[in-house]
Amino acid sequence: MRANLLAAIAAVLPLVAICAVSVAHAEPGSATARASVVGGKEATQGAYPWMAFIVDAEGGGVISCSGTVIAPRVVLTAAHCVLNEESGALRGPSGYQVVTGVVDWTSPERQVSAVTQLAPYPKFADGTSRNFFGDVALLGLATPTTAPSIPLAKGTRFLRMGTRARIAGWGMTSARQEGFTESLRWAKTVVQGSPCEGYWGRICAVDFPSFAAGVCFGDSGGPLVAFDRKRGWVEFGVAQAVFNNCTTRRPQLYTRTDLLAKWIAGRVAKIEAG
């Protein structure tokens, strides 16, 4: 699926980070890189408590993505983080680990959860969605995390051009970075509108007017959030792709969560009940 996405969207790169690391090194603590989010700032402990670092060892390498806790046993991320990049087949859940509760996922205070099931949006997984819309997936945790859940935005109020938002993740500072990222970073961004670059169901956001910050590889599945006076931080987009090797001069693409709210709610209920 990731290979198909690359072929179908010229010059647009999905954000999954792939490192040629031995499976034996999949345990958190083996990484070397420490920065994340191009041009971002280091997050302080507790600032984004619903963030989740996702790592999977399959075959001869390890991949990493970002995500958010949306229920005690459910993490929201990108669908291409759970699909084999070559075949498009669903990866096995047994190789996944999710770290929550810390900004540095190597911290001894981290919560590490095994994953029992992977649930990508079906139409994205089978390639029948409109122009690769629906790049989201849910991870079912073996044990509940004590990290708080972030609510998903209701309606379309945050989709308006000029909405001030934030991004966060453990992605790379540039496309040339080697190894995994350890410290969570965040950055401000501004919504440019929806659809994004002609892709229906996607949101465009860019660091306007400085164009200095943005998401990069490893930020897949990370949130696009805005502040609501009644609900606090709410998530209304999931990081999907960037242009031209993480350039901050062009908008980044985020999947709209409001269009998938019914499916997400239904699957969350099943995972929590199970």
Molecular structure report:
The chain is mainly beta. The protein has two domains: 2-25 and 45-149 and 260-273, Thrombin, subunit H, CATH 2.40.10.10; 157-259, Trypsin-like serine proteases (Thrombin, subunit H), CATH 2.40.10.10. It contains three helices and 15 strands. The chain has helices at 2-8, 122-125, 261-273; strands at residues 12-14, 17-19, 41-42, 51-58, 61-71, 74-77, 96-100, 111-120, 137-141, 164-169, 185-193, 202-206, 223-228, 232-243, 252-256. The strands form two sheets. The chain has a six-stranded antiparallel beta barrel. Strands 4-5-6-9-8-7 form a six-stranded antiparallel barrel.
What is the CATH class name of the largest domain?
Mainly Beta
The CATH homologous superfamily name of the largest domain equals Trypsin-like serine proteases
The CATH topology label of the largest domain is Thrombin, subunit H
Number of domains: 2
Order of secondary-structure elements: HEEEEEEEEHEEEEEEEH
Oligomer: single chain
Low-confidence spans: 1-11, 18-36
Query: Per DSSP, what share of the residues sits in E-state strands of 2 or more residues?
Result: 25-35%
Percent helix: under 10%
Q: Can you summarize the main beta sheet? A: 6 strands, antiparallel, barrel
Q: Calculate the terminal CA-CA distance, rounded to whole Å.
A: 28 Å
H/I helix tally: 3
CATH architecture call of the largest domain: Beta Barrel
Number of DSSP strand runs: 15
Rounded Rg: 16 Å
What integer is the average pLDDT? Answer: 85
Shape descriptor reads globular
Walk across the major sheet and give the strand order: 10-11-12-15-14-13
Structural class: mainly beta
